[in-house]
Amino acid sequence: EADIYQTPRYLVIGTGKKITLECSQTMGHDKMYWYQQDPGMELHLIHYSYGVNSTEKGDLSSESTVSRIRTEHFPLTLESARPSHTSQYLCASSESAEGDTEAFFGQGTRLTVV
Amino acid sequence: QKEVEQNSGPLSVPEGAIASLNCTYSDRGSQSFFWYRQYSGKSPELIMFIYSNGDKEDGRFTAQLNKASQYVSLLIRDSQPSDSATYLCAVDRGGADGLTFGKGTHLIIQP
User: Fold this and answer.
1) Which distant-in-sequence residues (6+ apart) come within 8 Å of A81 by Cβ?
2) Residue B93: its pLDDT value, please?
């Protein structure tokens, strides 16, 4: 079983609040990712990181930001939550070996903005 | 826009039969192909990955890849009710990092 953890699992928050979704992995993986998934829809890559101090935007434009100060930690922040941010957010990590992009997922954070 | 297409289903298969799941992708630069299983309300878990043309078998699962046709499939032999889930096809982003996912096929194994 992959050692990647997300907190909180569920979050209901009011519009305009600042929130940070936490993601930590203990596998020493260099690469980490954030995906967004609406019910019944595909996962969309919103952010990824090659390693410490590296962050990149994914295919889907997102108002969220990420940081990678430590290898094991890849938090996602929304400065001002809106109802349109309601979704499931999935964090993943993978080894950096070339050709190996197998990703292990955390349990996800289901965010509801009211 | 790089795309991964799957039939959303539901695909209903009797217990013990072979379930066949299909996926096509648009980016010819993609080299790595993955099948994930996702139970309702849970996160995706990796079932199989394949990099080379042909078949790759792992227990009851066989992944098939045809890069010329840009086609990936997953066969599940001796289907069990516990195989009922959504199966996500994922493809690497052709040199960029991360994966592009299809919407998934909802598989139902009928006891």
Assistant:
1) A13, A14, A15, A16, A17, A18, A19, A111, A113
2) 81
Task: Supply the DSSP symbol for A46.
Answer: E
How high does pLDDT run on average in chain A?
91
d(CA A16, CA A12): 12
- pLDDT exceeds 90 at position A97: no
Residue of A nearest to B105 (CA): A40
Q: Answer yes or no: are the C-beta atoms of B72 and B89 closer than 8 Å.
A: yes
Phi, psi of B85 (to 5 degrees): -175, 180
Helix H or strand E encompassing A65: strand A65-66
Nearest to A101 among B44, B99, B102 (CB): B99
Give B24→chain A minimum CA distance, Å: 14
Check residue A2 and give its pLDDT.
59
Q: Do A102 and B46 touch (CB under 8 A)?
A: yes
